[in-house]
What does this fold into?
Amino acid sequence: MLTTNGIQQATEAVEQAKKKVNNRHRLGYHIMAPANWINDPNGLVQFKGEYHVFYQHHPYDENWGPMHWGHVKSLDLVNWEHLPIALAPEDACDKDGCFSGSAVDNDGELTLIYTGHHYIDKERDLFYQNQNIAVSTDGVHFKKVVENPVIEKPPADSSHHFRDPKVWKRGRDWYMIVGNSKNNIGRVILYRSPNLRNWEYIGVLAEGNEQLGYMWECPDFFELNGKHVLLMSPQGIKEAGDHFKNLFQTGYMIGEYEYDKNKFGHGEFIELDYGHDFYAVQTFLDDKNRRIAIGWMDMWESDMPTKKDGWCGALTLPRELTLSADGKIKMVPVAEVTQLREKKLSAIENQTITSSYEMGVQGSMFEVEAVLEVTNAEKVELVLRGIENEATVLAYDKSTNKLRVDCSKSGKKKDGIRRVKLAASDQLKLRIFVDRSSIEVFINEGEATMTSRIYPTEPYRSVEFTSCSGKSLLKKATCWKLKDIWNEK
It folds into this structure.
C-alpha cells in the first residue's frame, strides 16, 4: 500500500522551491507546477463535477527526474487550483518513476492508471516498465492497490518500451491501450478487464512502419463524429519538408474499428499541431459531450531558459476537438476561455491595408482575434512587436497557401520557423493567445494550430498588420487583455 512520506516530502520540496522562482516568464492562465519540472499531461478526467488534470512532475529539480504526478483541478477549465502531489515513486511497483497514464471515474472512485518505471542500468538507459493503479474517493488523496502491478510485463514479442496506459469503459468492460514497440517499430497494444485489476491481452490495435518511428508514446483512442481516432506521439519520425520538424511528433489516424475483431482500418498519420512545442496530448469526454484535449507545451531537447528561473514546462489551453468534413481533426479553445478576457485593449473593423496598420497592445497576456480578406494581396503579416528588434511574426503567403510562424526574434534562437499549409481561401481567420512565454495560434476556426514557447524580454507593444504586393482588408480585429489566474490566488 502507499505510504505518505514520498508525497509529503515532495509537497514540501515544491513549497520551498516556489519561494525561489523567478516570475519573469511565468504563465498567467496556463497549467504549470508551482515550481520545478513538468511534462506530459496525465489523468484528464471530470470527477464529481470538477475537472482534474495531472501532469508528470519532478518536484525536486527544474530538470527531468524521477516522475511524480502533479495535480490541479477546476470547475470551469479556466481557473485552476493546485492540489497536493498525487503519486510519488516510492513502492516496489514504481520505484524509479510514476510515468504517464490516465484516469477514470469508477462509480465514484477516481482511479489513476499509470506506468511504473524501473531502471536496470540507468547509465545505459536499460529499464523495464509495468502498469499500476491508485484509487481515491475524495479526488485528492490516492492509495496504490495491493494488486500492483496489474500488468506486470509486456507481451513476449515486445521491446522494453511499455508505457502510458489510456483506459476507457465500453459496456461492462474496461479497455486499455499502451504505447509499445516491436523490432524498433512503434505500435499500440490492447487489453481488456472486467474490474480494472485483472487484464487480458487482446493484441495489437495499430502498428507503424520504419517511417512512423520506433516508439508510439501517449496513445489515446476514442470516437469522434462516428469515426474512431487513434492519437499518439511517435518518437523517431524523420523530418520531411515542413512536416515533422520537432524532435518528436504528435498526431492521429482516423478510421473504423471493430471491437469483436480488434480490427482498426485507418488512414495516414496526420500531425495535430504545427508549432514548436506540442507533445503528449491527452483527451477526455466531459459532461457536455465535448472531446477536450490538452498537450505538453514544450519539446524534448529544446531551449528551456526558464530552468534558470527554477521552473520548466507548462500545458496548453484546453481545446475542443471536432471532425471536419474532409476527415481531419479541428481544434479550438474551449468556449470557457472567454472568461479570461479582462479588458478590451483595441478594436477595428473594415480597415483597408495598403502597407501597414498598427494596434496598440502594451502587454504580455492577451488574445487577438482577426479576420483578413486577402483577395488582392499576395502576402499578409501579423507582427507582435516588442522592444528594439523583438517580434513574433505570422506571415501568410497566398501563392503557397502557407502560414509561417517565426519566433526567431522572440527567444527561438535555433530553428525558429514553422509552416503549415492551409486550404486555398481569400479569407484568413486568426485567434492568437499570448501568455508571457507562450503563443497558441488557432487558424480558420481550427483548421490548423501552431503552439510555441517564446521568451521576449519585455511585454509586447503593438500588433502590426502588413499587406505586401497588394492591399488586404482587415474586416475585424480585436485585442483583449487576459487575466492572470495564478496571481489572483
